[in-house]
Predict the structure.
Amino acid sequence: MSSASVGGRHRDLRRFLLQRLGSGLVLCIGITLVAFVLTHLVPGDPAAANLGQRAIGDPAAVAAFRHQYGLDRPLPVQYLVYLKSLLHGNLGISEQSHRPVRTDLAEYIPATIELALFAIVLSLVVGVGFGIVAAVFRDRWPDHLIRVVSLGGVSMPVFWTALVAFYLLFFKLGWLPGGGRLDPAQNAPTHLTGMFTVDAAVHGQWTLFWSALRHLVLPALVLAIYTVGMLTRFTRASMLEIMGNDYVRAARLKGLPERVVILRHVLRPALVSIITVAGVAFGSLLSGTVLVENIFSWPGVGQYAYRSAVNLDLPAIMGVSLFVALVYIVVNLVVDLLYGVIDPRIRLS
Amino acid sequence: MRPHRSQLHRWLASGCVVAVTAGLAACSSSGGTTIGKTSLPPKPNLVVETSFVLKTLDPARMFEPTGLMIDHLLYDTLLTYKGSDVTTPVPDLATSYTASADAKTYTFTLRQGVKFANGDPVTAADVVFSLMRTKNINGNPSFLMAGITATSPGPGTVVLTSATPDTAIPAILTNPALGIVDAKKVQAAGGSDAANAATADKAESALNTTSEGSGPYTLTSYSTTTQVVLAVNPRYWGPLLHYTKIVIRNVGASVQKLDVLKGESQIAVDLSPTQAQGMTGVQIVNGASPNLFFLLTNDNPKISKITSNPQFQTAVRDGIDYAGLVQLAGKGAVQPAGIIPSMFLGSLPAGSGATFDPTKAKAALAASGAGHPTLKLVYPSDIQVNGISFGDLAARVQQDLQAIGITVQLQGQSIQVALNSYRGGQEEMGLWYWGPDFPDPSDYLNFLPGALVGLRAGWVKGADPALEKMGATAAGTTQNAARGVIYQQIQRSMNSSSPFMPLVQPAQILVGAQSLKNLQSNALWLVDLSELG
């Protein structure tokens, strides 16, 4: 390969990344505008939501609240001030926690990422594995069994699965701990990433690592049940479609081992659609684990988003909206880049 | 073409064996360290679980249930309550006080030798700073100090002066929002008690990291979503404390139940009567909550000519099956005999409240000339109080009133939306609750014509001059016996004619481990964890 073609490819990649960065930036600004407008369309008053029944009757308290959170300014001015602050990395002060939204998010995002990562890895391993087995044993009992299991996985409401899993695995069997990220008496490991398993492992705090890992298993398992079902079904369908191609038959006729045929000639091209689904699932896990976080007392973004919405906490709602937008932008970008890794034709196009 | 099964089976089987082995290993290793046995903190640690309603621990800004429970442990107040008795304030940082005859001046003598957790002595200047800071910050609890000024004429003495007679001051001072902070430390952290404290005070963040109080515990860690950890204050002047560390965790009610049964926690704060029913191996403290559900029929003819009709109000009052509502609310709930909850001074004796009499209700409705009206009942549909859903209560009210000829259209709304129409006095009929701001009957003068809640029901000043006169007398009466009598008179009057119908006081339930001693619920701070044995 000539150095000129490598240089051209790097230029293409740079242009591609810059385009995505630009569109992502526009999208983020759009998200702030939509979130801002929608939050103000709700027929509620942040002051009423956050002040007590007596304080709301006190004009001085209401005025102090509005002034503190900039609500005494005209709406367009409020929005422009927000955008200006955003440029400086300032997401405002949360009306519910009275702390900078950035500080809140820095605390809650790692907890959600840790949970989502664990769940998606579990889902990929089990879901893709099940999908391969189901495709290979098409219309035989392993396939039937896996299809029933995956259908159950995508059909069961997460809150119900969470409650049943909590009751069985924690309360009845005592195999796993209940809520929270650590046992009550334990303090968080020395801060590095905010992901307790990682921080504890890096600092050699193995008791904490073990506790954090055990607390992670149950909520991650519940989250994974749905994504396992989805990935299984997509993997199976994609592989079956590819297995009918002539080149797969040719590979077998050439006498290639079945393992090589399945993994290299069937699974690899199927990965394009699997990664697409996995990307969407990961984005969804990062942004939509409200119920599971509530049931397992997991202090993540989902709980924060819920409380922000209930309290009409505009700065927090905007912060969470931006985070969710960034999650999908980054996940989609990674998925697009992975397409190129898996299939050079996509890279060239 | 089918796959080559022999090869395929080998590697699939290998994969399955590895997966199953890993799973079993995980389960067995987890099972070997049962959470209920190994992860529980060894005594003397205490784990308490509650659904957090917590925004801050800065006493001058805090006025949420979880904050009240925690700040009561971090900060001493001039007066306090013991156990579940909220009728008589008892000494805390103040050993005694005197009140002037006009109930405008209260003089407190401070306890000597008390130190903050950091070793600084508690002085009268600290008390004045703390109270004036809460007043001037213009936050949620600032109304407690409305019209009151704190001064210190000399060491060991603090004087509170009210612009108007205020018999509630001793009760108000028990509120943890009026906890005493170390003025020097708070000022060093940016705190201010000046008139412009609303903008000048910057100490909240510091007080959410380090508590600057003299209470039995100090703050170790704080999160509004996860847990708050407290450690015993080694310089605490009061009785010996049983627990050296308290962990208060944010957990939903259904999980609280499982955790307390499993031994993961020692106290569950938020269980409803239904959830607590049938629990064994734990102790259940079951009493009436000071929260009061009430119905309002708007007295403003511009809002509704029907609901403002006194005969219609009587029909509604007589047409509600109160016993049915109490049954719906579960064990421990009671029917309030008046607008003042059963545990406060001035409450009416049980059984002396409104009674269900459909015949009288139908006669009153006929006398109102309203025919068979159709009206809208607004209530918050997305919150529960003490495990009771407003929607369930509203449906029962609808059913009762339907039986006497009043059709009620239920309008459940998000709390944020419903609050607007409620506070604006725009509802024809509303179903709401009132939680006490402080445990004194004067807090319920808000229901009188022209007062805060009265106006929400369209009950304007001058609507009932005799009642308003009784209210003014009650506000200026200092002797408890006389106060009790006059507050009862006020409620009897309201029970015969007013736009308010007190419906039910739900149960307030605490579920605790059998090993706990002296577990009592408190109307103000839910439970005093420092009193546990």
Q: What stands out?
A: Chain A touches chain B through 70 residues (CB under 8 Å). The two ends of chain A are 18 Å apart (CA to CA). The first helix of chain A runs from residue 3 to 41. DSSP finds 15 helices and no strands in chain A.
